[in-house]
Structure formats: structure tokens, C-alpha cells
Design brief:
Layout lengths: L1 H9 L7 H29 L8 H6 L1 H14 L2 E6 L6 E9 L10 E7 L8 E9 L2 E7 L3 E11 L2 E12 L1
Antiparallel strand pairs: 1-2, 2-5, 3-4, 3-6, 4-5, 6-7
Length: 170
């Protein structure tokens, strides 16, 4: 028995006090709060938005959109976009618009949008220039990656044609 007392006397005994428990508890929650703040900041700064601002309003506009699709199909236009590869940070595109008989369609305004699939802030929108009847041309600064090419054609303020297609820019 005397040996056991000598062994314990040679070691320092550590005691858990109320102060130790309080410091550990505050430290634990401080670490959790700090990690949550970092994760929230990363999530908010990297999310660029949703496809629609209001799904309710988009649902209400469905019948109007369906009528526009039927009117667009009735035109039977042939719209052919061509996008050249990215060279020095810029992509060129050509857009040809012809009617059902193959004649060029003139008097249109073309709006082209290279939409980033997940981050609306990285979209590039511009108006194409009609350099000859039924042919539009333009260039845009773009980075490589996937984009949605959105082509919108209008006569005055009336939308006539809209298409959306996925492409990979290299």
C-alpha cells in the first residue's frame, strides 16, 4: 500500500474544474460558429441565381408561352447559328435566318445570349449586327466551358423566334 501512495505522489493529478469545462464549452461553440460563418459566406458568394425569378409567375405565363411556340412553329424559319472556337478570349458567331422557302428573312433584330448554366452573373448578352439580308454576325469575350446559346429574334418590339441550345466552348 505504501508503494501506491508513492507512485501517486510522484505524478501530478489533474482536476477538472468548472472553469475548464466552461472554457472547453465556449471553445467548442466558437469553432462551430466560425465554420458555419465560412460555409455560409462561401455558399452565398458562389450561387448565381435560379433559372426563374418566380415559379408562380412562370406557371401563369405557360399558356402565353405555348401560343408563342405555336406561332414560331408556323413560321417554319430555318435559323442556323455557328460559333467559332474561342481565340484569344473571344468567340465569333454567325447566324443565318431563312424562311420555309429558303429566302433570307430581313428586318429582324437579333439578341444573342451565352448563358452560363449555373451562374447568371457570367452570362454574356449582346445584339448581333445584320451584315447582309438574313445573316447576323458578332463576337464576344467568352471563357471556355459549357454555355446555353439563346437566340432571340424580333421585329420591332414583337418577339418572333427564340431557341436555346447547349454548347461547349473550347
Amino acid at each position: 500500500m505504501h508503494e501506491r501512495m508513492q507512485k501517486s505522489a510522484g505524478r501530478e493529478q489533474s482536476r477538472v474544474t468548472g472553469r475548464t469545462v466552461f472554457i472547453c464549452l465556449v471553445g467548442f461553440f466558437a469553432v462551430i460558429t466560425g465554420i458555419n460563418a465560412i460555409m455560409i459566406a462561401a455558399a452565398v458568394s458562389t450561387f448565381g441565381g435560379m433559372e426563374t425569378e418566380s415559379s408562380y409567375k412562370a406557371g401563369l405565363a405557360f399558356s402565353r408561352d405555348m401560343a408563342a411556340v405555336r406561332a414560331q412553329d408556323a413560321l417554319r424559319w430555318q435559323v442556323t447559328p455557328r460559333v467559332s472556337p474561342i481565340h484569344e478570349g473571344s468567340a465569333r458567331f454567325d447566324l443565318t435566318v431563312s424562311d420555309a422557302a429558303g429566302r433570307p428573312v430581313t428586318g429582324l433584330e437579333a439578341r444573342i445570349r451565352f448563358a452560363h448554366p449555373t451562374d447568371r452573373r457570367r452570362d454574356v448578352v449582346f445584339t448581333a449586327i445584320e451584315d447582309r439580308p438574313g445573316h447576323f454576325r458578332g463576337a464576344s469575350p467568352l471563357s471556355p466551358g459549357q454555355r446555353d446559346l439563346v437566340v432571340e429574334l424580333a421585329q420591332g418590339s414583337e418577339p418572333m423566334f427564340r431557341s436555346k441550345s447547349r454548347l461547349v466552348l473550347r
